Amino acid sequence: MGNLLEHMGIERDRVHFSWISSAEATKFVDVVTEVSKTVRALGPNKKLVKDYN
Amino acid sequence: MAGNKTKIVAFLCNWCSYGAADLAGVSRMQYPADIRVIRIPCTGRLSPKFILSALREGADGVWVSG
Amino acid sequence: MDTCINKIREISLELLEKGEVDKVIGFANGTIPMATSPIAVTSKQDIEKLVFNSTCGLNLANYLKQSIKDQKSKIAVIAKGCDARNIVTHIVENQVQRDQLYIIGVPCNGMIDKAKIASLFDDDITSFSEDGDTLNITSSLKEEKLNKKDYLRENCQLCLHKNPVIYDTLAADLVEEQTLDNPFPDVEKIEAMDSDTKWQHFTDLTKNCIRCYACRNACPLCYCPTCFVDESGPQWVGKGQDETDVNTFHFLRAFHCAGRCTDCGACVEACPMDINVRDFTRKLNKDSFEMFGWEAGLDLSKRPPLDVYSPDDPNDFIK
Predict the structure, then answer these.
(1) B61 vs A20: CB contact, 8 Å cut-off?
(2) pLDDT of amino acid C131
(3) Shortest Cα distance from C315 to chain B (angstroms)?
(4) What is the ipTM of this complex?
(5) Distance between CA atoms of C193 and C250, rounded to whole angstroms?
(6) Shortest Cα–Cα distance, C258 to chain B (Å)
(7) pTM for the full model?
(8) Residue C291: pLDDT over 70
(9) Selection from C43, C36, C41 nearest residue C17 by Cα
């Protein structure tokens, strides 16, 4: 999925996949932080966003 | 851009990451507030359509976690 | 190809006369020159309608499921290399039963790119015929003799499986398979672009799309009773010409073909706007080949890669 999105020109770092057990609260916090950081670095998504106006 | 304007749609499995999020909450851990959590019964419930829908509706990022 | 159609008619006649099959699915001449359309022949008077030439670009595997009436009936189908691969996919996905099919295999030397030929002429083409590797095409203004090899469709130029992978009988001798150093030059060209250029490329590609869904209807993989584009609650994709909706449709259509597409080119063949929709599916073909060593429709005993779990599946995308 990520590969085809990237092929179409959606930045790879916008879609993340991870595996966290329900006991891993620290890993959860780490992953949220990392995901937020990479998505923030990309800035707002303009591609594939439906304009309802 | 201001930190809290980023919108990340997080699809979290009820039994795994959703539990982890809950545990992080009760443990009063701090994490960025950019994510909007959608609880799914299992990561297998996720269809590629969900990811595209999220992006179409204006999400800046999507995070799928089992 | 002339001898091959005689053989096809001969086999079809025999099958129908003996009552072994209810119908033969093949190609008939279309209503305009240089076009063929699928036909289901049920009686021997109609056998003469069957044709096979370099314009039979559609995929007949698409018409099997709707042609089989009940569990007892049996039909014959004419299958090129790619059709046969799609028949294998259909059998693996339990859409048809192998014992309900009689496959007349036709080794294929590629189909012609009609849009490319039409672009040589200023007016409509009035007649088309072929003689070996020479195509004779006339319009009211001029007459052209073309070499078939120069006017093959892109997917046929890159085809690695010209011979049918399963068949009950062959209508012609097997042809030599080509070997390519790089089967995915077109995908690599797009991969080399940066993400904005890629986005621009696909937006330009689909800007003429009229959302007629001919690509979906021509595709043998698209057999869902209700397609996601027709679902209204929730509506996954808008129905209009909006750029986002068009791109979402093409993206998801392609993604549904992941690990199943045989690159038969029926989608491109069917597109009235001449959009090369293969640009989407080709990437997935390349990925399934590189990640799983998989080419769709080659083996009845193998499940598609997205259907099975194996501990050594690539998983470096998961944190």
Answers:
(1) no
(2) 87
(3) 13
(4) 0.84
(5) 20
(6) 12
(7) 0.88
(8) yes
(9) C43
